[in-house]
Specification:
Blueprint (H helix, E strand, L loop, with lengths): L10 E6 L2 E6 L10 H16 L5 E6 L4 E3 L4 H4 L4 H19 L5 E5 L2 E3 L1 H8 L2 E5 L3 E3 L13 H9 L1 H10 L3 E2 H6 L5 E3 L4 H13 L3 H14 L4 H15 L3 H11 L10
Parallel strand pairs: 2-3, 3-5, 4-6, 5-7, 6-8, 7-10
Antiparallel strand pairs: 1-2, 8-9
The structure holds coenzyme A.
Coenzyme A binds next to helix 2 and strand 6.
Length: about 260
């Protein structure tokens, strides 16, 4: 089902309850990110931000072989410096739109997540990888560097040593190594990837949206500022939760020994 007046060319968009599933659909090019895909992803996530019926998003690639095998090298090859700056900013802004969404986004990585694909996975909040996945920042082999936020997000996710090694050497790593580095949250057999991802998505979709938003924002903002500012943000987000029916529902349900039902108000 499409949610735009003009259907995206390279995305499939469907809802499974309150979970919006966004599939990058260029399997013949291993879902490489050209300008059209970057723009369509930005629009798709702007819609998710505005739609209160959507509580969680899952981002994946079509075809079973790749999540995304990188920025489109055919487009990359023809960029002059001005166009390269625009391309980098376009990708960065789209990924920042995802990262600051205020709703959880899960990357379902069932194969290659290279270059821009690893960057895209890293702007999501959780990453579930199949045991067949390979992740890496091989841009160095093309004479460039990660330009969609990879140097910054890999540094923050895995630390300076791992970020430098992955970007300088350019050799992809398998899913298990990515798990050890904290780059992916879970590794599952390929056949269980969908089931695991959607079970997690459903669990998050049933949680209280304002509390989810507070956690996402507090951890994102806290990573960029000092502890006192981060603690202050946490306090404000905590106080906002106390204005919600969902908090009353969650605490009452616990005391009444029943399952809570959160409605997002
Ligand atoms: N940009 C554009 N096209 C890409 C692409 C990318 N990043 N990655 C793969 N493709 C295309 C290939 O050109 C090929 O197209 P074709 O059939 O029209 O020739 C198609 O996708 C299939 O890829 P192919 O290389 O034949 O598959 P493979 O199984 O032999 O290898 C990879 C898979 C992922 C190892 C290999 O495609 C690869 O190294 N891709 C580039 C990874 C990269 O450097 N990414 C960072 C970009 S900044």
């Amino acid at each position: 089902m499409s949610h735009d007046a003009t259907s995206p060319q390279h995305l499939l968009i469907e809802d499974r309850g309150a979970v919006r599933v966004v599939t990058i659909n260029r399997p013949d090019k291993l879902n490489a990110l050209n300008r059209t895909v970057l723009d369509e992803l930005h629009a798709a996530f702007a819609q998710i931000a505005d739609d209160s019926n959507v509580r969680v998003a899952v981002l994946r690639g079509a075809g079973g072989k790749a999540f995304v095998a990188g920025a489109d090298i055919a487009e990359l090859a023809a960029l002059n410096p001005i166009q390269a700056r625009d391309f980098s900013r376009r990708g960065q802004q789209m990924m920042r739109r995802i990262e600051t969404l205020g709703k959880p986004v899960i990357a379902m990585i069932g194969g290659y997540a290279l270059g821009g694909g690893m960057e895209l996975a890293m702007c999501c909040h959780l990453r579930i990888a199949s045991d067949t996945a390979r992740l890496g920042q091989p841009e160095i082999n093309l004479g460039v560097l990660p330009g969609f936020g990879g140097t910054q997000r890999l540094l923050r996710l895995a630390g300076r040593g791992a970020a430098l090694e992955l970007c300088l050497v350019g050799k992809p790593i398998d899913a298990q190594r990515a798990y050890e580095l904290g780059v992916v949250n879970r590794v599952v057999p390929f056949e269980q990837l969908e089931e695991t991802t959607f079970a997690l998505a459903d669990q998050l979709a049933a949680a209280a949206p304002q509390a989810l938003r507070g956690i996402l924002d507090a951890i994102l903002i806290g990573g960029e500022c000092g502890i006192d500012a981060g603690l202050d943000y946490e306090t404000q987000a905590f106080a906002v939760c106390a204005s919600t029916n969902d908090m009353r529902e969650g605490t009452s349900a616990f005391l009444e020994r029943r399952k809570p039902s959160f409605h997002g108000d």
